[in-house]
């Protein structure tokens, strides 16, 4: 099954917890604190796998979580860092942050990697908190939480040439003749329901990839027919072969079909029409095709300047007439055509740090149901998660951090009184003036 759009959730590993420990060995003078740091968690990394051509693997597996780092140990031993979680994706995958709409990266090269969720660092052990005034601290940090983010993956087929045209214009038949691809071919519309890829190899050693895109119809850019779900695959093609059925067997006007398809391409992305486009007059082995082609040429000559400059190649995929000339001309155009800078895939980053929407350091509200003051916010919640609640000195350190952020004053201004309950995440304590 061909799948080209999915939404998934990824979670990087948390850092390991730091340890509170002391050395009291017989021959170790000045033993002191000896709690080690926690290890780093695992990053979540996308890596291009050239053997994949669909996002099918993500259809039923949508949650990915890297392993957490190991906890620190006695004798200042650092916990083990977790291995990164490497997820294979096909070439041409665009990764977008679902929450912000930001394009994180475009994976278009073999073995290219992109860090989409960064792991948390390990928490510090108590050896880092020793000071002249507190030579034996019972303070350690929990590991930093790994980043968690919702992502949208969109596959845009990487092909040099795109075949466009109305249903039954002969796209699949042409692809099957000029490449070794075996697309489904039948005498009814919308035989092709997913993009098909094939490689064309010329005698002179040149080759290029061709994508047979599902048949467009008038209104496709607004969701008619198969809609615009496959129009995205045209975006990365350098040359467009626009197939027009010249037989007239279905009572259609070839020129009107030609204008309708170009209109849909323009409405989807007007830059597409700026690329080289070859008009391929198909089914020339049928009786009325030659006459219809002459009428088509006259109509084209009377149309816009852009249309007048487009080359027309009459072919028959059944008798193989005109195919050699078409393939060679297409290869020549590819040799001289490159996507403009604005049409290149989005700039890729080797590492992406998810930044949630900007909020204040903390927010205070009163929960009437539980009769508690609730403190929330990215910064204060992160500080709490990294606080070792099992040791009093760690909790006192957290209290000083809250005071430094101005939470004490904010609670007082909000109306908190001595003895009120204050809640952060799942932890509650008593407010003291």
UniProtKB/TrEMBL annotation:
Enzyme Commission code: 3.6.5.-
SUPFAM superfamilies referenced in this protein's UniProt entry, alphabetically: Obg GTP-binding protein C-terminal domain, Obg GTP-binding protein N-terminal domain, P-loop containing nucleoside triphosphate hydrolases
Keyword Chaperone: no
Record flagged with keyword DNA-binding: no
Localization per record: Cytoplasm
Obligatory cofactor(s): Mg(2+)
One GO term describing the cellular component: cytoplasm
GO molecular function (one): GTP binding
Residues the entry annotates as binding GTP: 165-172, 190-194, 212-215, 282-285, 316-318
GO BP: any one term: ribosome biogenesis
Residue ranges constituting the OBG-type G domain according to the UniProt record: 159-335
Domain Obg: 1-158
Protein keywords: Cytoplasm, GTP-binding, Hydrolase, Magnesium, Metal-binding, Nucleotide-binding
Residues involved in Mg(2+) binding: 172, 192
Residue stretches making up the OCT domain: 354-433
Pfam families: DUF1967, GTP1_OBG, MMR_HSR1
Predominant place of localization: cytoplasm
Role this protein plays: An essential GTPase which binds GTP, GDP and possibly (p)ppGpp with moderate affinity, with high nucleotide exchange rates and a fairly low GTP hydrolysis rate. Plays a role in control of the cell cycle, stress response, ribosome biogenesis and in those bacteria that undergo differentiation, in morphogenesis control.
The protein's assembly and partners: Monomer.
PANTHER family listed in its UniProt record: DEVELOPMENTALLY REGULATED GTP-BINDING PROTEIN-RELATED, MITOCHONDRIAL RIBOSOME-ASSOCIATED GTPASE 2
Protein family per UniProt: Belongs to the TRAFAC class OBG-HflX-like GTPase superfamily. OBG GTPase family.
The name this protein goes by in its record: GTPase Obg
Species whose genome carries this gene: Lentilactobacillus buchneri subsp. silagei CD034
Gene this chain is encoded by: obgE
